[in-house]
Amino acid sequence: MSAETSSKSEINAPISKSLDENEQLLRDAFRNCYDIVFRPIRIFGQLNILLVYMDGLADAKTLDNSLLKILMSGAPLYESGEQNDPHLILEQQLASIAKTIMTEKMNDAIEGILSAQVVILSDKSNHACIADLKGFEQRGIEEPSNEITIRGPKEGFTENINVNTSLVRRKIQSTKLKMESITVGNLSKTTVVIAYLEGIAKDSVIEEVRKRINHIQIDTVLGGNFIEEFIEDHPFTLFPQVQNTERPDIVASYLAERKVAIFVDGSPFVLIVPCSFWSAFQSADDYYERFIYATLIRWLRMILIIGSLFLPSIYVAITTFHPQLLPANFLLSITSAREGVPFPAVIEALLMEFLFEGLREAGIRIPRPTGSAISIVGALVIGQAAVEAGIVSAPMVIVVSITGIASLITPRYSMGIAFRVLRFPMLIFSGMFGLYGMTMATIFLYIHLTNLESFGVPYLSPISPLSRTELKDVLIRAPRWAMNTLPLSGSKRNKLRIPKGQKPGGEGDEVS
Amino acid sequence: MKHRLEAFIGVILCIVITTGCWDRVELSDRAFDLAASTDLLEDGSYLTAAQFIIPSRISGGASNGQPYFVETGNGKTLLEAIQKSRQKLSRLITRGHRRNYYIGEDLAKHGIKELLDGFSRDPGNRIRLDIWVVKGSRGMEALQVHYPLEKIPSVASSKIHRAIGGTTSTSYLDFMMASSDEGSSPTLPVVDIVQGASPQKTILFYGRAIFNHDYKLVGYLNFVEGAYRQWILKRISYLDIAEEIPEAGGSVGIIVNSFGSKVKSSILGTNKVKIEIELTGAGHVGENNTNLNLNESQNLKLVQNEINMKTSEHVLEMITKVQKQFGTDVLGFNQIVNRQHPAEWNKIKGHWDTIFPDIEVTVHVNINLKYVGLVGPSLLYKESEIK
Question: Do both B170 and B295 map to the same domain?
């Protein structure tokens, strides 16, 4: 408690005119920090200045070239007289660095040092110059590993928030794109940036995002999910109400569709709100391929994702409750395959699904060199050997494999989690009550989904509540020239996004 | 409200762990019968038999033996007979896939009323069932025929029926509908068990069995007669017709694959009904044993007229046989009169059975031979012999 207050008073202290005093203050604040560097320099033989920075955070090379060299060799003579304020000389003549801030508060100086900047203190001046010389090691811009497209751009976000915002800024070169910065986390001091298009995004949503982020009280923010869990509407649901992406083009497109993006420093994932259920079926590639194919692929995706939820349940329900629903020959094949299998179908399905989830998890966690072990174990032991030993039936392996592939097909991993987890309760319901139980569970699921909303927008919109103009990007992917209204606008005031009548090959084309 | 989630989970858990709620039946606890039969024994008791599949023998090769077995049971009533066969089975009988049911001729003659009542009460019994009369034999013998083409032989009879152009999976339903319909009499398809080329017996699709209002078998229509009846009822998709052409001194066979039928009725005074049947069809020449060049249009016309005339006679013969010999309306005439003369029908429907045998019927067959193929005259004739 006492340490807390003492450090508080230290930090609140103003910078004094004495360099020694300032140095002592900083050394106190950074005691036991091996990575702090104090570099005293004497220039013109009379003025003492002190450079303070964190080793590894500041760009040492640039520091050498643009500051130390000039200060120590080619510096003009110090004329005491008209320009006798040493800090002005430092800022305006000596430090050849683009972004500098002058401050009188020790507090700002310490924060500057911590955020990888170089603080220059000089004798006889109560100002400190904070020079932006960030130069810590970071990952370059790479192709996003989790959201791959065939024809789309190949750049993805990095851990650096400045790079991330600039990637989006380059895609939307408009002053309408606003980016508000909020610092969250009293230890991590993480920069969180709320980005939106002014006049396009809904004011109520922006205000809500601002309010919810400002209310967060947390020590460290190490990723987007730290923010997500504080701002989502319904914590006790499997369905994510905040979308995340590592693609700048997705962020740009959502911003143009009246949504709000939240950048979190240190995370290559940008959060997007509000988010709808149907975005689970939308992939970035849908917009980079021609619309007919994109629509077909979207349907394929929808059928498989829904299938991943229901397929094992349907298999269990039909074989144990309603075998008359199967064609006779199909039933004969299944019956002969199941002959001699010791477990009831529902137990068998639960077991295999459980094992599949285990395999999937191991596939993610396993160290790369041992990765081949998992494929051998998965394919041979669980697939072939278990069937040959008569412990598991072959149709069940087929069902679980199809389900496994289908459950990983969703372009949004976090949405796929919901479907993957829900197939277990679905399986129990179908094992108990057959198709009747499945229907009941599905109705429960619908009720749950219609109850959800994300930042005031119903989760199932625009299907429920229905908004006809927005259906252009839900069950189909309409051609770009047909998507001429903005989504999320409700039925009352439709905002025009692009002018109508741009369909190529029409009458307008012939006139011109 | 506060404990809603907990309460919900609690209720679900109760259901899960209460064993009574798990009413599933595993596939390995079910015995699927794909066909069954009922016969009347000499002592008046019923003998039921069912062909059950043996799942473990389905996927294996032929070396494993037959993938089915027949289990029987007999009793005073049908249910008692089934109960007897259940006493021999380790699994629950599942009838959801039973598509064929065979009735012995003795039982058919005795009447199948009791049988049908049991059928209509059993929810596991599928409605798309084909009931067959086994001509001159027991139903169980149909189950014992080892049909070489099909893994499970009992599906053979309905597949034969479909392959030769009939309508399958509707005979149970049709039977029930005809039974409840005023004036009409039900029919069932017939199989015959004959000696095949190999030592084994095989199944032959014979025709149609005709029942009277007491659900007793009164007679059979053979395959061609049955096909004519199906033609009148528009339930046929394929028929071969071969007729003698006396003018050319040979026969011509045609394949008809498009069918139409128009039945017109008129009331001629009290209890006198006239029916005009016009059967249309389109087909092509399948064989030509005459010396006619069918590429000549007058020759084709000649053949066509001759076949139409002959076929009309045959259809009329079939109708007369039904009228005079069986006296049961299995041709849907009652419905025609009902639809076309509803007021008169109400007066005469009470004694339709006495009116039906005396109905004056005319038949016009109008088959259009659309093409003769690339071979006009028969290739076996020298050019000089061709007319």
Answer: no
* Residue B264 DSSP one-character state: E
Residues B115 and B198 occupy one common structural domain: yes
Check if A5 contacts B (Cβ < 8 Å). no
Contacts of residue A326, Cβ cutoff 8 Å, sequence gap at least 6: A318, A319, A334
Minimal CA separation from A139 to chain B, in Å: 45
Estimate the share of chain B in helix, then strand, then coil, as percent rounded to the nearest 5. 35, 30, 30
| Stretch (H or E) spanning A426 | helix A413-433
Total tally of structural domains belonging to chain B: 2
The residue in chain B having the minimum alpha-carbon distance to the alpha carbon of residue A345 is B26
Considering B183, B204, B221, which residue would you say is the last residue of a domain?
B221
Same domain, B101 and B202: yes
Closest CA to B227 of B277, B169, B165, B276: B165
Residue A383 one-letter amino acid: G
Of A320, A334, A340, the CB nearest to B24: A320
Residue A430 pLDDT class (50, 70, 90 cuts): very high
Full residue range of the structural domain in which residue B182 is found: 26-221
Cβ-based contacts of B34 with chain A (< 8 Å): 328
| Domain positions in chain A | 2-131, 161-275, 287-458
Most confident range (mean pLDDT) of A69-73, A254-258, B122-126 is: A254-258
**B91 in the same domain as B209:** yes
pTM above 0.90, yes or no: no
Q: Does A34 touch chain B (CB under 8 A)?
A: no
Query: What region, left, alpha or beta, does residue B256 occupy, with left being phi > 0 and alpha being psi -120 to 50 degrees?
Result: beta
- B54 assigned to some structural domain: yes
Residues contacting A364, CB < 8 A, separation 6+: none
Q: ipTM, 2 decimals?
A: 0.81
> What value does the CA radius of gyration of chain A take, rounded to a whole number of Å?
30
Q: Both B50 and B180 in a single domain?
A: yes
| Yes or no, beta carbons of B27 and A434 under 8 Å apart | no
Using a CB–CB cutoff of 8 Å, tell me whether A332 touches chain B. Answer: yes
Nearest to B335 by CA among B356, B314, B315: B356
